[in-house]
Amino acid sequence: MKKTGIAIAIMGLGFGLMSGGVSAADMVVKLGHVGPLTGSISHLGKDNENGALLAIEEYNAKGVTIGGKKIKFEIMGEDDQADPRAGTTVAQRLVDAEVVGVVGHLNSGTTIPASRIYHQAGIPMISPSATNPKLTQQNYAGVFRTIANDVQQGGAIGKFATGALGAKNIAIIDDRTAYGQGLADEVEKSAKATGGKIVAREFTNDKATDFMAILTKIKAQNPDVIFFGGMDAQGGPMLRQLKQLGINAKFITGDGACSGEMLKLAGDALSGNAYCTQAGLPLDKMPGGKDFKERYKKRFNLDVQIYAPYAYDAAAAMIEAMKVADSTVPAKYLSALKAINFQGVTGNVAFDAKGDIKEGAITVYQYKDGGWNPVP
């Protein structure tokens, strides 16, 4: 997607003395998280926040020294409601607070406009979940992401639909967000290039729950596969309505709906005809995935939704760059961030010249045995 921000600010000695557990010799580095913490996809925003929080807690436990000072990382949460206007408002608030780094946002639609504000302020940012390719096509030197983009994901979905699923006629629906529409555009390109015919291209919005009119139009076209570009809050109800209308086409969606919450929302409408993709390896196949899953569950008493490992690696990448540069000043640690290369939870974390993750994998999942299972 995809789709939240970690802002980093250096606080003075006075704050350190008030924060509790911080000695006079410590330097407090403030990490603020911004994402949809209310609304229909708040579970994904909280998932990102938890991933980032776990990273800074573990770095604090190990101890980090930068510039001869022991560092105390702290996190502050902000809610952007998955709204571009709220996202830019929060971004400016962080700039005004003199933050020195940002990880996020969650959604492409909030990350892209916010990235301009951070760029103008000279503040590096890393997104763990914004997948629209436009994010890193802006030629902003300090913009990065730890997840594969929609060119890779959309291409994989289109090829899977026409190849493994044998689709000739494909219907596409998107939610008209930067993420949903962008991914749908890439799926359409890939499907056409591999022999598929697009028999319908419809759109809704990211607040809708009634899709009966759209699906009735699509039913008349008798598609083999229906692709939905959007989030689980719409994907779940859409699957239920597909079942109500007796539409038997295979259903595939992207990472925004490839979640545990999607399983709850779709309920008994799910079958072996439902597929989704995630930009990355399955959690249990990530180099640090199994251990991360256990640590996350122990700390929050929750299961990972989707992006928490990428948020963890995004926070870790920024902290590792500061360690290499021995500085928290953006102008000093940015070059180290561009050249960073370490083994994270999700795999090798290193960025190309545009700021995209170098080794961005895509995994296709099928609904089976009550959950999402990787397709061999």
Automatic annotation (TrEMBL):
PANTHER family recorded: AMINO ACID BINDING PROTEIN, LEU/ILE/VAL-BINDING ABC TRANSPORTER SUBUNIT
Source domain of life: Bacteria
BP GO terms, sorted: amino acid transport
One Pfam family from the record: Peripla_BP_6
Taxonomic classification: Bacteria, Pseudomonadati, Pseudomonadota, Betaproteobacteria, Rhodocyclales
Swiss-Prot/TrEMBL keywords: Amino-acid transport, Signal, Transport
Family: Belongs to the leucine-binding protein family.
SUPFAM superfamilies documented for this protein: Periplasmic binding protein-like I (SSF53822)
InterPro entries with a match to the protein in the record: Leu-bd (IPR028081), Leu_Ile_Val-bd (IPR000709), Peripla_BP_I (IPR028082)
Signal peptide positions on this chain: 1-24
Protein name: Branched-chain amino acid ABC transporter substrate-binding protein
Residue ranges occupied by any Leucine-binding protein domain in the UniProt entry: 29-370
